[in-house]
Design a protein that fits this description.
29% of the residues lie in helices and 29% in strands. It is α+β, with helices and mostly antiparallel strands. The protein binds arginine and zinc ion.
């Protein structure tokens, strides 16, 4: 799904201008299919995505025969459309061997390019705006390796394999933000092209699969079980979560905090053997859903819970099912990942340079939660401020990969929101948060969209407070809420 973000409109108008010129100077020449190699020109990851491609749905079927080993096989059918004529489809992909590519059911030529991390399919006739088509990829083997160099020890993104050890079963899961999804899924792997997902995972008997979305019926084969999940509301590709492990699936009563008070289903997946004190961290999920939806408005998805994993990694807000490593099984991280369901998954960054919008809001939710528990929010903000003083600071729009998840993205991002709150007061701040979510829900937004919208809601005063925190190369003064 693609919204008419400013950037897309610019692309479209540039395209139509180009066409007018071409048609007046060369009237006899039919319009050419757009230059094939155009990516989405992300400022941080310029190679990602295909300009003009709009993937609406991914229907994915995976089989994991030996959990804990990297290999799997399967197929995916993408429902796609375009905003300009496309003679080939160039998906991001650095995954297992591709055995076949079909276009509306018919085999078509394809090639993979490991240097570009692309799977390129040549179409029998260009896909033009207004058409919808299905592209199927049949593949299997070992996923590719995409590293996050900014993490303390280089972190392998995408499909994870955890070998069996110490009486623990082997496991697999996804941990993809920012650009790891294409290690296991041929995709338009950029948050500006959100899509819905159907995920079917076949695992050996005794194992459980979990994925983003609502679980459908489980079917059994000879020695296998197949689990199906439907993620109806569009999410960015990095937010697709898939897990295979020996799990206890623990349900809790639904919480009526969805749109118009609709119920949000609750289920958590704990690896068998997870101690009670770790499980207990998630006892207050219902309360957190209630507290955050008071500030942000209705919870956007049909379900929520966590899936715990065993390696020490960053946590990730995989849609409807946050992925939590043992070192981050804390209430604070629980609330942070829950807040990302709104900020990140439902309202997504237009480019990777804008990811502070996700991290700043999710971090601010930690302060809102502390206040709900009767703690002093201003003291939380003061600690973040101290971290910026000691550790350094930067304007919020990221200019390189190492900044995406640094302390400024999280804590200076949160302080920007605190500055807005201090400038306009609690009631206007709450009204702003809810209006902002309502305005961009289901879509994508960049930093400029955010500032422009803040002006319409909170006036010059609110926008100026935010803008200083977004743009100043130095650290603005600590915002202090009146009367605290
Ligand atoms: N969005 C995640 C969180 O804060 C962090 C992801 C970090 N990813 C990374 N590749 N370092 O919840
Ligand atoms: Zn985060």
């Amino acid at each position: 799904m693609k919204l008419f973000s400013k950037r897309n409109l610019l692309l479209l108008s540039a395209l139509s201008v180009g066409w007018t010129v071409a048609q007046t100077s060369l009237p006899a020449t039919p319009p050419q299919v757009a230059a094939p190699a155009e990516t989405l020109n992300d400022p941080i990851f310029p190679g990602l995505g295909q300009a003009g491609l709009d993937v609406r749905h991914y229907d994915l079927s995976l089989t994991v025969e030996r959990p804990g080993t990297p290999e799997f096989y399967g197929s995916v059918t993408l429902t796609l459309a375009s905003t300009r004529p496309l003679g080939e489809i160039r998906l991001d992909f650095l995954g297992p061997t591709v055995n076949a590519v079909r276009w509306n059911g018919m085999g078509v030529p394809f090639r993979t390019d490991a240097a570009l991390q692309k799977l390129i399919a040549t179409l029998p006739a260009p896909l033009v705006p207004g058409q919808e088509a299905r592209l199927t990829v049949v593949y299997g083997g070992r996923p590719g390796v995409v590293l996050d160099p900014g993490f303390s020890t280089p972190l392998q993104l995408g499909w994870q394999s955890v070998p069996a050890a110490d009486g623990r079963a082997g496991a697999n899961f996804t941990l993809s933000e920012p650009n790891g999804t294409h290690t296991f899924l041929p995709s338009n792997d950029h948050p500006s092209d959100k899509a819905s997902f159907t995920t079917r995972v076949t695992v050996p008997e005794g194992f459980t699969a979990a994925a983003s979305g609502v679980e459908g019926p489980v079917t059994t084969g000879s020695g296998t079980r197949t689990f199906t999940f439907t993620q109806t509301r569009p999410i960015p590709t990095y937010a697709l979560g898939i897990h295979v492990n020996r799990f206890d699936r623990v349900t809790a009563p639904a919480v009526p905090v969805g749109v118009n008070g609709s119920p949000v289903a609750r289920r958590d997946y704990f690896p068998v053997g997870t101690p009670g004190n770790v499980r207990a961290v998630y006892d207050r999920t219902e309360r957190a859903l209630r507290v955050l939806s008071e500030w942000f408005g209705p919870y956007p998805f049909a379900a929520y819970g966590v899936a715990l994993v065993t390696p020490r990694l960053p946590a990730l807000e995989t849609a409807t099912l946050s992925t939590i490593p043992p070192n981050l099984a804390t209430e604070r991280t629980a609330v942070h990942e829950l807040a990302h369901q709104w900020f990140g998954n439902d309202l997504s960054p237009a480019t990777w340079a804008d990811v502070w919008l996700s991290e700043g809001f999710a971090t601010y939710a930690e302060l809102l939660w502390a206040e709900a528990l009767g703690e002093n929010g201003q003291a939380v903000a003061a600690r973040w401020y101290d971290g910026q003083v000691r550790g350094g600071t930067r304007p919020l729009v990221a200019t390189r990969e190492a900044q995406l998840f640094d302390r400024s993205a999280y804590q200076r991002g949160a302080l920007a929101l605190h500055a807005l709150r201090a400038a306009v007061g609690d009631d206007a701040f709450r009204a702003f948060l809810r209006a902002h979510v309502a305005r961009f829900s289901g879509g994508t937004l960049g930093t400029a969209d955010f500032l422009a919208f803040s002006r319409t809601q909170t006036g010059e005063r609110g926008e100026a407070a935010l803008r200083m925190w977004v743009e100043s190369p130095t650290l603005p003064a600590l915002p202090v809420m009146a009367g605290r």
